[in-house]
Amino acid sequence: MTISEIVEKLIAAKEAYYETSSPIMSDSDFDSLEEELRSLDPRNPYFGIVGTGSQDNKIRHTFPMLSMQKAKTVEEIGKWMDKLAVNDQAGFCIQPKIDGLSASCCYENGRLLYVATRGDGATGQDITHIADHVQDIPENIEFTKDRIEVRGELYLPKDTKYDTQGRPLRNNCVGLINRKESREELHFVRFAAFQIICENLVETESEAIELLGSNGFNTVSTETAFSINQIDDYFKNYLAELRNLWKYETDGLVITVNNRKLFADIDSRWVVNHHHHYAIALKPPAEAKETKLKTVEWQISRQGNAIPVAVFDPVFIGGARIERASLSNYETVKKMGISAGNRLLIERANDVIPYVRENLDLDESSEPGSDLIISNCPSCRTKLEEQGVHLHCPNKECPETSIQKILFWVRESGIEQIAEATIRSLYNKKIVQNIKDLYNINQDDLKGVEGFAQKKISSFLTEVSTSKRMSAREFIAKLGIPLVQKKALAKLKIFSMKDFFDFDDPSYIIGQNIISWKKNDTNMSLVKDLSEALDIIDEKAADTKPKVCMTGKGPLPRKELISEIENMGYEFSETITSDTSILLCENSNGTSSKLQKARKNGIELINYSDFFVNNVKSN
Questions:
Q1: Which residues of 318-384 form beta strands (DSSP E)?
Q2: Which residues contact 468 (CB under 8 A, 6 or more apart)?
Q3: Which CATH number fits domain 399-467: 1.10.150.20, 3.60.9.10, 1.50.10.10, 3.20.20.480?
Q4: 288 touches 232 (CB < 8 A)
Q5: Are 169 and 249 in contact (CB under 8 A)?
Q6: What is the pTM of this model?
Q7: Per residue in 345-382, pLDDT tens?
């Protein structure tokens, strides 16, 4: 992947994590991708992004709610302590890192003003409405009349009575907080306070937690350590016992310099944009549980591949009941040599879909996975063919392949009222055999179909009709071509169907995927059929805005600079790409990686002050 593609995937993962109840990437995969980006472009502007900023009803934080620097080992914590060089007598406050939704409760004159999520760190979503339902957010406080913020984590406890339907606790918590109606169930949500933002109220982080606990707040467990050995012992205890004993799900520990008077001095030594330097998160390895395999079920994908799914005795990981996990492909089943009754190690890094990490009963002498590998398609019974790492159904009329294609299109089009059971019912009755058929249905076709009363028929037809109109880029992004999204198409200068048909540039992986996809006659027949059924609007490349990137420190805070750039009619880019027009910089003679790349690609270099002065004059 290119740097820009990595950034795009990371930002998409951030948006899914902070704004929805359905994360698209595991913590471990996310951290690995960040590390890859850091090795390729350590000064990439992405590392200044905190959370995501696309909420409605915004509240600007008086003091930014920044992210947290991370460590994976106690050795890394030791290096961080050496870098800080603070007196051992200061000590370090250790707290659990609750896996929930960060929020801040602002009080003034002892009364609650608002509750806001972290958002992008500078601005959060106004969620004051939850205070009427969440029992741990006092309406009044008595320990100070100063304006303060009490920061903490919103979460569902492990023993919650709320029906999570087997989904992770954090996902359910986010869903409840974002719910527009029926907010009564918010009483299941807890708020754990872990920080006070106020000067001179207390001297240490430990005292802050004690103060909150004695004044009605639900607080977290804390420990004070004075050496790396004590931190190491506590972390081992956390992994062995504490994270299972605590009533909340956690994804590590937060270690903070206990003496709050040292915070300003520590932060003054380095740039503070993504995180404060006086605190760090120590992340645990992914949690894994042992279980016993019952069988392997095979499901046909929209590409016609047979996907194996392990079915095993239920285990609980990360607050979710897990009894199934994808094995990805035929090759994985062979390599793992799994058989019914084998002991499997199931891993689940927080909110990600679980996977089988290891077969604990692997027998190198036996034929790998022979008793669980199928020969025929479970849907149409056609003989399966080996195709790379997959077993593939060659039948172009395979019912399950057709159903999965329709389901993918429905989900990508945001047609929320059409459930999988509905699609299967319509397919079995031969009302909908392909995606195009969705747009040819009328009321008479649905009359008498089980589950379709008049109200549902009307809702169904309205949703389908609404989804007919889209831009060429939206249409192409819904075809399921690997890695192809609207932003990627803009980078490849694909704005119309003609651009798509004519495209033949293999310079990028995404371009190679498009070229390969178009070589399949079935794919192109799908495009032809849908083009006739939909209202596809071509965009003009001329309508796109010149792309501007930044390096170095500008005259305003970063977010204000981006806003100014976009207000001037430009498109801001986090990274330099082939279509970047301008790189803004402090010194055009500098040696940053971005400046070097810009010179190599002939991109115009403009000083910040010159760029903004000239654009103001021209406007």
A1: 320-326, 343-348, 355-359
A2: 439, 533, 534, 535
A3: 1.10.150.20
A4: no
A5: yes
A6: 0.53
A7: 988 654 456 888 888 888 766 555 567 889 999 999 99
**Domains of the chain by residue range:** 3-41, 58-282, 287-392, 399-467, 470-542, 545-618
Of 332, 392, 408, nearest to 520 by C-alpha is 392
Structure tokens at 409: 């299109």
pLDDT band at 464 (very low <50, low <70, confident <90, very high): confident
Output the pLDDT for position 212: 94
Indicate if the alpha-carbon torsion angle 41, 43, 48, 54 is positive or negative: negative
Q: Which CATH class is domain 287-392?
A: mainly beta
Q: How confident is residue 21, by pLDDT bands cut at 50, 70 and 90?
A: very low
Range in 10-14, 238-242, 299-303 with the lowest mean pLDDT: 10-14
Give Rg (Cα) of the chain. 27
Cα gap 357→372, rounded to integer Å: 18
Q: How many CB atoms lie within 10 A of CB 8?
A: 20
- 470-479, 558-567, 579-588: least confidently modelled range: 558-567
> Does residue 319 or residue 130 have the better pLDDT?
130
The CATH H-level (homologous superfamily) assignment of domain 58-282 is DNA ligase/mRNA capping enzyme (3.30.470.30)
Contact between 178 and 204 (Cβ < 8 Å): no
Angle at CA 290, nearest 5°, toward 289 and 294?
Answer: 125
Residues 6+ away with beta carbon under 8 Å from 392: 303, 304, 305, 306, 384, 385, 386
pLDDT given for residue 31 in this prediction: 65
Burial of 245 (0-12, 13-18, 19+ CB in 10 A): exposed
- The yes/no answer on whether domain 545-618 falls in CATH 3.40.50.720 is no
CA neighbor of 318 nearest in space, from 345, 292, 352, 344 = 352
Q: How far apart are CA 511 and CA 522, in angstroms?
A: 19
